[in-house]
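ok trying again, last paste got cut off:
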Amino acid sequence: KTLVDRKVALTSTLTVFETFTPGRPMPPGVDVLMPSLKDQYVQTYQRTSQNQNSSYAALFPKMMKLEYAFAKAGGLLVAGTDPTGSGGVIPGYSNQRQLELLVEEGFTPLEAISIGTLNGAKYLGRDRQIGSIAAGKQADLVLVTGDPSRLISDVRNVDTVFRQGVGFDPAKLIQSVTGR
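nice, full thing came through this time. structure:
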């Protein structure tokens, strides 16, 4: 309530904390890492999965409840993925995962998409220029097959990535960074 009343924004970094939490799935995108980093992360993931004494097993669901309650109380929740040195938070993939985690905590797919796009622009005071699709706004776009407004996992079905008006093939983009 204090944070909401003082108009403090909260950044959800669930993708980071999920990597510390036993029982969570392997993060997406690990296969694009350099082989040595991939092997190191897989070992870290296996250790984490076996850690029966991890405080994150209790903390992760509490973080989810806190974020949800904060936003539902009128707080501005934004999404961040903070790629970590441990290798489990992969740019691009973690942005997609962040949206899935927001839905897991109780948001609708459309609310999650808004948290991941428009809310950051609102926080920066740039929502008149960026953060949503409208005539006159600047936007880099990701076209997907499916309907992530109903099934959030459809954000993974990337068909084309547009950056500054130029379309890119996502398979070629991934191939260009795999192992690097």
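cool. Helices lie at 2-5, 14-18, 35-50, 56-72, 93-104, 109-116, 118-123, 170-177. The longest helix spans residues 56-72.
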